[in-house]
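Good morning N.,

You mentioned wanting to compare the apo and holo forms, so I went ahead and generated the holo version with prephenic acid. This is what I fed in:
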Amino acid sequence: GPRLDRIMDTKVLRVGTPGDYRPFAIKADGGYAGHDIDVVEAMAKELGVKVEYVPTTWPNLMKDIQADRFDVAVGGITRNVTRIRQIEMLPGYAPFGKVALVRTTDKDRFRTLADLNRPGVRVIKNPGGTNETFVLENLKAAEVSTHDKNAEIPALIAEGKGDVMITETYEALYYAKADPRLHAAFVAAPLTPQNTLGFMLPKDDADYSRVMEFVWGLMEARGQLKQAADKWLK
Ligand SMILES: O=C(O)C(=O)C[C@]1(C(=O)O)C=C[C@@H](O)C=C1
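and this is what came out, ligand included:
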């Protein structure tokens, strides 16, 4: 197929990522790092090509992949029916549910969804992703504001500029571990049923999809997925 041919001929795999979601993909110190970065770099190595990163955002992710700005998108992307109707997604990893990142001093204040969905509870949301969808559907009574630099939201919560960040298991655990002022609430009993993350592919080249699925399977069979998970998701 044409996409696969172009990748193999130019030896470049264009990887789109918002790069703002720890520990999956974060842009810092001029480069990208995280679980998904390690995995996609290993996949490119298996193909014998180099990775070229293409910045995107959560609000633009779907239209950018459909506009052929990149060959694969990574960075903590939830697999769901809405998306898989429009593009393709590789097998799921990192099972998670929606949880809440709150201040440690508010641990007892937020025990149920109803505790979050109250006037006076200041929720800060990142635009464009599934966190926003969850907030708009479930926290209608709360005081919701939007901050478009996702990686800054945990510090805003820690500093008391908001009370709640709705996010997913691993991100909440990451920031709670990194900052004692923060607590990952609802981790034992998430606010949504379990789901998984997955890499997104355009669906215009079936040969490309087959090869990427094969390479994903190799990563799994060789223990490279486990290695990345042990390094970043523990
Ligand atoms: O839309 C998705 O797939 C996401 O999982 C992305 C999303 C979000 O929902 O905003 C998830 C957690 C991070 O805090 C940032 C981005």
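The radius of gyration is 18 Å.

Happy to go through it together on a call whenever suits you.

Best,
F.
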